Records
---
Amino acid sequence: MSQSNTSPGADLTEVVHASVVNDTLREALSTGGEFAEVFVEDKASSSAYLDDGRVEELTSGRDRGAGIRVVVGETTGFAHTADLTPEGLATAARAAAAAARSGGGGVRTVAMPDTPYRSLRPVRIDPSGVDKADKVALLRHADEVARSRSGSITQVSAGYADSRRRILVANSDGNFATDEVVRTMFNVSCVASGDTGMQTGRESIGHTIGFELFDRYDVAELAERAAERALTKLAARPAPSGQLPVVIGSGGGGVLFHEACGHGLEADLVAKGASVFAGRTGELVASPLVTLVDDGTMAGEWGNFGIDDEGNPAQRNVLIEDGVLTDYMWDVLRARKEGRRRSGNGRRQSYQHLPMVRMTNTYLLAGDGDPNDIISSTPHGVYVAHLGGGQVNTATGDFVFGMSEAYLIEDGQITEPLREGNLIGNGPEVLARIDAVANDFAMGPPGTCGKDGQGVPVGDGVPTLRVEALTIGGTAA
Amino acid sequence: MSDLPPIGGGDELLALARRVLGDAGGGEQVEVFAARSRSVRVDAHGGAVESLSVAESAGVGVRCIVDGRQGFAHCGTLDEASVRATLAEARDNARFAEVDPWAGLAEPDGVSPVMPPFNPEAIGALGVDDKVAMAVALERAASSADPRVTGVRVAAYADHVGEVAIVSTTGIEALSRDASAGLSVSALANDDTMTTVGGWGDAARDPRDLDVDAVAGVAVDRAVRMLGAGPIPSTRLAVVFEPRQATTLLNLLVGTLSGIAVVKGRSLFADRVGETIASPLLTLIDDPTDPRSLAADSHDGEGLACRPTALVEGGVLQGFLHNTWTARRLGTASTASASRGYRSTPGVSSGAVVTAAGSGTRDELIAGVTHGLLVQSISGVHSGVNMVSGDVSVGVEGLLITDGEIGPPVREVTLASTLQRMLLGISAVGADVEWLPGGMAVPTIVVGEMALGGR
């Protein structure tokens, strides 16, 4: 196993020199325009997958290219290329300019610093230096542990993945920055079979760190938890149908806020009148127990980075403070239009995509309640230990999210496990009905947020909390 | 950008793949999968172009199988030196995989490919200005169709021309091509108490077949009819799925018929071939050779010629979908259902699922429902459906049906059941089969009873 720090010289300015970046921006604005941007990306990834008792495959990939956008008036032109030579970039710049040409702004000169702002977060163990056999050994270990847990565990799959993404962003406002983010993740899924059919259990971990991830987590423990979750659900009964109080466990349910209000606080959706939170800054939009933060600076968390994909440093932004809406999240276009500070939320899936407003790590600050008191003061309800994914209609505020591990609460006690299902609620209503927040904050597992066809890594976290009433999408009366 | 010749011939891709294949060593199986596409997307907002993207993508995925061990690597470029390095990386990855007696590339099986319609000229004939005009007209049509429309969240024109070349040491040599264009729009309506959204879209091989006003009209109608919607009390009722919503149900079923799910012991219907798993009203075939489907294709992701596969006949399960590996594992032949992009190894998916027409118009099916919901949109499929247990729980919007009459709009409610019960509980299949933008042919489908979770 090799250990190395990220070498300071290893950034994209060695592939695309500052002078070429400058020339490309000049080319992009040669026929007019208010704003031009070059985004260069070099992403290397590797993964290994075990299923059905066998390491099925190891894969590795390399994707490198540049996306160039030009803004003329209200129109953005965008083109991308995998050709990073000066000629390739110039061709893409002309294509982007032609795409944006419907406006008629004057020609601008570009003022850019000679050296970029460098965001460097050293990784202790570079995954690309780790022997592939060591990665495979983790998968085998997880498989063995999960299978040994019970004869009812009939299938196990496990995945390992790492990636190193280097970006360079330069724009005609004079931003020039580079960043490198290393991500390492691991997951294990189990199928348990019994008289009642098959059930599944899954555990995943992921951080913006290197192979030292496995100093922090024991894959055997993850495998046991995944197996346990599947086995528990074999005895699960159908979830209720209709409105009940819902207690969400610490670390298990940040997706609630991601869907209930996170997307609705994205400035692009707000600007189009497609958010129930439009025009509500300064107003009480949630229970006073709610203070919601989006924080790209959270070191090591899945939605962490040094600079966003528009060249602005990651920030910690308070979105809702004591129930009052304080601010939306912004990208460059929307911030320029409003003449306001950028918030570090401009993100894109790859150089082949235009950036838009996206969340990073979104979490609810801890309150002062005792998690046990919250459960014991709930006579009849549902305890959700882990939420699955979710989806929101930002215009109506209606959102759904899945419960992947849930239990009935009867007489203030967690009792029987419930089968999977969705919960449905309306963002503003649910935020107002949060009536308890505990002191046991934890971040949840790594997530991927999808919006308009683009996926980006995000994190979330919550303490134990209770919503007075949510509609549970089960089949039991 | 300019270094790539026009898409459509495929000769360069095949030639590149053949040259790289020359690096294969003795005793190695090597497959080169090279893909290239060009796409244009125009988003309109406020009567002008919000963004115009011109994208050209290309990449190569290489599989290498040595002594029963498979390795894979990909690169996002057609640069020959990079592709050769990718083969070397795939070979190195193979060293760490475990021996798999069923590993192996596809081999030519004598089935002749049926070439689907391919007409990139229809898209090429449309200038950027014409594409811009369609997107702007779509936004204008949606904005002006009804006074209650207060905005348009998305109004977009997009087109795509792509080609894939697959060449292998086992004798595969295949070229697939496709070209299509589409419109999508999402309209916002407001009545001072709430904002609602209605979305619609269409796709065609020839952009001239796209009807801007029709697409905008449907989206607006769907937004406006949801004004005033709210939850109703929890109940059990019949559920009417319009063709585009019925695809959700059919896709869940087809997902369980993937050979991968069967091999891995995760299919609900693994041992049920020849048995009744659905209402006798349901007959499904996967037929990517049908030229009416926009998903029609000449070859699958391993270079085998696409072919029809019977899935369900009168409710009786006929078989599964296979790629080469799942077929070998189960001692059968591939159905040419390998699906993939250049970044991944072959999975399994349907090509173009075609549902046999039942009887009755949509109105007649609705008229036959005493207490039900006409579903207009479904959310949370990825979070509320467990494909292993069959549990289904989704959020829906729709219109209440009482005594055969469509009534008030409903939102913020869930529908739940199990996939097994929903399939057996299909009480009607309409005659109104529609060819949908995604390539499936689907009619209106009624499920007799589901649990609605509401107020």
---
Amino acid sequence: MNFSFTEEQSMLRDTVASYLADHYSFDQRRAMLAQEPHWSPAIWKAFAEELGILGAPFSEELGGLGGGPVENMIVMQEMGRALVVEPYLGTVVIAGGFLKHSSHPNAETLIGQIIAGEAIFAFAYAEPQGRYNLADLKTTAAKDGTGYVLNGHKAVVIGGAYATHLIVTARTGGGQRDAEGISVFIVEKGAAGVSTRDYGTVDGFRASEVTFENVKLPADALVGPEGHALPLIEKVVDEAIAATCAEACGVLSKLHEGTLEYTRQRKQFGQPISAFQVLQHRMVDMFIQVEQAVSMTYMATIKLSDDDKARSQAAAAAKVQIGKACRFVGQSAVQLHGGMGVTDEMAVGHYFKRSTMIESAFGSTDHHLARYEFLSLGQAA
Amino acid sequence: MNLDFSPEENAFRQQVRAFIKDNYPPELRAAQDSGEPLTRELYLAWHKVLAKKGWVAPSWPKEFGGTDWTPTQKYIWSEESAAAETLPPLPFGVNMLAPVVYTFGTEEQKAKFLPGIYNGEVWWCQGYSEPGAGSDLASLKTKAERVTADDGKEYYIVNGQKTWTTLGQFADWGFFLVRTDPDAKPQAGISFLLIDMKSPGVSVRPIITLEGGHEVNDVFLDNVKVPVENRIFHENQGWTCAKALLAHERSGIAGVARSKRNLEKLRQIATTERSDAGGSLLSDAFFRRKVAELEIDLTALEFTELRTLAGESSGKGPGPESSILKIKGTEIQQRLQELALEAVGHYGAPFLRDLGHNAGVGPDYAEGLAGDMFNGRKTSIYGGSNEIQRNIIAKMVLGL
């Protein structure tokens, strides 16, 4: 049993943290988001070339750093602390996950392109009607000779605007909510018939509504088993959940630290408001939530390599804990900043917006509670 | 980062499990199962077996009888003890007083007091709280005046009242905080005294708690004569000992292993009990959600405790996360008790003392659940209330 980080892992954290401190301050981020293209290709290039972190979870033979889920966790935590919008999650964690867990013929090439910062991925899985059910799919991929023809509409594809490639879940068979009949495809965003409507999200990311109209896909667009890809999707989504929990830990720790700092400076009734016990206890409860979130993130990350049930249960439990922490810590931070908490000028509001979106990312607290209940307690009556 | 146990650790677990299975006193097991109040002998039965084995005090330094186990071994020990529902050695001597004695005591004091604690020959109780000094412990008023007696030796003459003295009715000796300098600032005038409970002037009066049990007591001290050599550490510096005692043994305070066991029992009960719709209570949408949330909370606490443990293993000492353990641990224990009572429905109500135990009223598992829940309210109050814990975290961890 061991909860400590290796020297390499500590170095990775320091490298990412110090780079972001220099190049991704709150003001730098705000200026960057205010102008086209609303993200920073230069930062992405630096992630690839200066820091090498786009290879963090890939093997050294493929040009990566030889890490795994723990490295993703470390990077994502720092991304959370700086509110980074660049698509590490979609590209390295999710696309990287699909490529690592399937034997795709071009996997090595694509991973090489990811590490080099050339291929950027977004995960097009949600649909307008499907809520958080990964199997609720109307998008279809019909067999067409050796390839496929893709039709459908994907909702709120985070990072869709920056992507060169999409990872798309679609039905190659079965009914709308069946577990069977689901496949995963890599689709070049520039392919004929792919159209995207890009917009900003409330927390500073760029997302897209993506429609596919008779998009012709070659046979090797398929990733994983045809028609039986739901377990693979669930595995990669659990990895994305663990990484998002790690990002949340970064966001939450900043919210908590920022609140401590603000209440020490702000004076009312002739003293710093941090001297008031009612505020102190609220900040202690925030601290407890942050630490519990960190514990659960470790737990879910370590258990990503367990069997499907244990892994899913761990990811669901972590997402529940993090969802609750996001709500409590985010809202408390705004409350303790008083009027300043609801201004655009202060960082706290921006962290709060991100923490609120994380609450429902890859499934809300209720969704994951129900999932956890099923896995731990069995079928409901 | 990993959760794996080494082959040696797995072997240790097997060894511990077998030892408990083969050596746990059957008469104690029977008494625990019946729910009867325990006698003094039964309280000490397992303690004495462990003393022979050398496992009474895993966390003590080796020279005084500690086991020299790694934090992981201690964790395994607490898991196995909880799974087997053993009655742990009484904490007053082993966990509370002994660290003060071996940290602050003289060689004579160590030699005189540690063996009795270890072997379970001397039953200790705690004299800290007073009617007017609860959360504000340093305001205590029990007075100790230093005098030279006719025999030419120095004594303290102690007068005052202590309260909430757990199991004081069985105690041979007690460790007391007393005021030796009434003019100093509150924390500066306190001394740490060991008092023989058979001394003239010591009297113990039961306090009956709301579930009907006699666990705690008032202790009255009326001109009690205590030899000066029974003081631990310097005069007026007893607060240092008191603080050290409170900081000791943070890990374990969360009670994770016991709560896991109780959660298992709750699930059993909820599988047997019926919901309004006729299915198992565990399949009821509202009840299962509460169980699931509690289970997740307990997992979070478990991993926070494991992080604390890992910090200790690597020699960093417990980090800030350890301060959470008391608050979350007791909240979870109380929640488990609430849900168990809720689960048994009507049969939470019978108070069966008049009919005797195993009276055949309702399911066996329902008996005593209300009492446990009532009694369990103490956990967020004792050992520094959870509000005081928050004050401590605010000050010591957050620097507010």
